[in-house]
Amino acid sequence: MNHLFPYIERTLLHPGVTINEQYEALDEVTQLGMAGLTVAPFWVKKFRRELGDTHPAILSTVIGYPFGYQRTEAKQTEIEWALKDGASEIEVVLNTSALFSPASVWLKIELAKLVSMVHAQEKFFTVILETSLLDQEQIRTVIKLATDAGADFLKNSTGVLPATFSLETALQFRQLVPQSVGVKIVADGATEEQLEELVKAGVERLALGHTF
């Protein structure tokens, strides 16, 4: 399992997450050399203090979580505070509701604005898609939007909706995303062998909520 640790992001976004649970995940990240820690915006400032400014682990947080249908201005404010608090990566949830409506043209404008904010601070930008709600054409459309906007990573799920991990679906997502863009897969429920398959296929980050 050790060889997988550099790909794993411990992700703590469920509504009942406790401070002790987060400290346990922080210990795993620092002691096992994991890629990073993803926390709710409320916790970013605290865990930046815990990690310090020079630790190599990514400290990521979510914007517009969990469904992405906040106004762009609200997301901009969330990003501003997250960056001030010390986030080194921003994950923005795509507004799926807009995608399903004539307002879908606004998604391109929104992503361009948000990517610009994050990249101006030289931080990473991830777009989260709820792929279980989208058909293949919609997934391709959103991937192109996010890629054209300059996203660094695409993530296949928020982890909020009930879902069973599917290696086939995860691998298909990696194939659809251009190699120039990183891929994160929510991999709770995957076996060690399946995690290895994802890494071999070029998945850069494995988002896991469970402990080791």
Break the fold down into its secondary structure elements and pairings.
Blueprint: E1 8-12, H1 19-32, E2 36-39, H2 44-51, E3 58-63, H3 72-85, E4 89-93, H4 96-99, H5 105-120, E5 124-128, H6 136-149, E6 153-155, H7 167-176, E7 182-186, H8 192-200, E8 205-208
Parallel strand pairs: 1-2, 1-8, 2-3, 3-4, 4-5, 5-6, 6-7, 7-8
Helix pairs in contact: 3-5
GO molecular function: deoxyribose-phosphate aldolase activity
Protein name: Deoxyribose-phosphate aldolase
Pfam families: DeoC
Could you provide a short overview of the structure?
GO terms for molecular function: deoxyribose-phosphate aldolase activity. The chain is built from 8 helices and 8 strands; from the N terminus they run βαβαβαβααβαβαβαβ.
- The first-level CATH class is given as Alpha Beta
Secondary-structure-based class equals alpha/beta
Write the CATH architecture name: Alpha-Beta Barrel
| Average pLDDT rating | 96
Tally of contiguous helical segments: 8
CATH superfamily: Aldolase class I
Strand tally is 8
Q: Name the assembly state.
A: single chain
How much of the sequence is in beta strands?
15-25%
Tell me the strand order in the biggest sheet: 1-2-3-4-5-6-7-8
What is the fold-level CATH name, i.e. the topology?
TIM Barrel
How far is it from the N-terminal to the C-terminal residue, by CA? 10 Å
Low-pLDDT regions: none
CA-based shape: globular
- Radius of gyration (CA) equals 16 Å
Number of separate domains: 1
Major sheet summary line: 8 strands, parallel, barrel
Organism: Spirosoma arboris
GO molecular function: deoxyribose-phosphate aldolase activity
Keywords: Cytoplasm, Schiff base
InterPro entries: Aldolase_TIM, DeoC, DeoC/FbaB/LacD_aldolase
